[in-house]
Amino acid sequence: MADYQACLKPASAEVYARSLGKLIEFALAFGIPCGDPAAVQRIYHEKLADLPEDLLAKAITRVTDIWTWGNRLPMPAEIRKTISNELVYRKVQLCRAQVALLKARDRERYLSAPKIMITGNQNEIASEK
User: Fold this and answer.
1) How far apart are the first and last CA of the chain?
2) Which terminus of the chain faces fewer neighbouring Cβ atoms within 10 Å, N or C?
3) What digits encode the pLDDT tens for the residues 38-80?
4) 56 with 17: CB under 8 angstroms?
5) pTM of the complete model
């Protein structure tokens, strides 16, 4: 379970700064206007704060590889779109693991509960006395 949760752990602020720094470097290298880099990093960090470290890096790499609009930076939603399938897959896997864990706990609780055995028909038992 911890592995699934670790795969969805948001990246640290330092990792975001480094990854978004690559996006700013990309913009500057190709003459894309980006305004104040600190403001851009703050805005993008707010919108992409839930992404794990590896997916954030992958998203930045993918979007800079395919970006054709030379007059603007990719929007956070466009960055997120490049890794949306992987993010959804991880979330689904975590949900499946949580459901499996709950079922296992319920099964253990069921198996450890005291059993009451009723045999025969209640009317027959009462009439035999």
Assistant:
1) 55
2) C
3) 899 999 999 999 999 999 999 999 999 999 888 899 999 999 9
4) no
5) 0.76
